[in-house]
Amino acid sequence: MKKILLFLIAVFTFASCQKKYTYVEKVREASVFGCSSEKDKDETVIVAASDSAAYLEAFQNFCISKKVYQDMLVRGMKDVSVPLSFKLYNEQGIDISDIMFATRADKEKEISDIIFGMENVVGSSDKSENGLGDL
Fold first, then answer.
1. What pLDDT does residue 102 have?
2. 65-98 as b/e, with b when 16 or more CB fall inside 10 Å?
3. Model-wide pTM > 0.85
């Protein structure tokens, strides 16, 4: 019984340490009239134990967006959203995307190296390679 109680206390303590953050990515999109405009994409909630952990997850999300954009260009896809920047807001609505912590540069490089080192993540624009055959 005592072990169960200690386990429940530990789970509750861990769960209560988690904070919610809001990730907002700014993109440039081409319009049907040939000009482009900047806009914020839909907000995404990030749950993390600390500001630095939340920042690293937000940075990873942004790198993934940039990688997908680059891969789409390589495949010849046009008129795609260009990831420009991101903001990360804490529970009080304060932008913490410029947070500084000791391992930030090293962790950013590690994340970038992994994501940008991946093969093209976007399928080929060639119909036969997409499994669509000769339509």
1. 95
2. bbbbbbbbeeeeeeebbebeebbbbeeeeeebbe
3. no
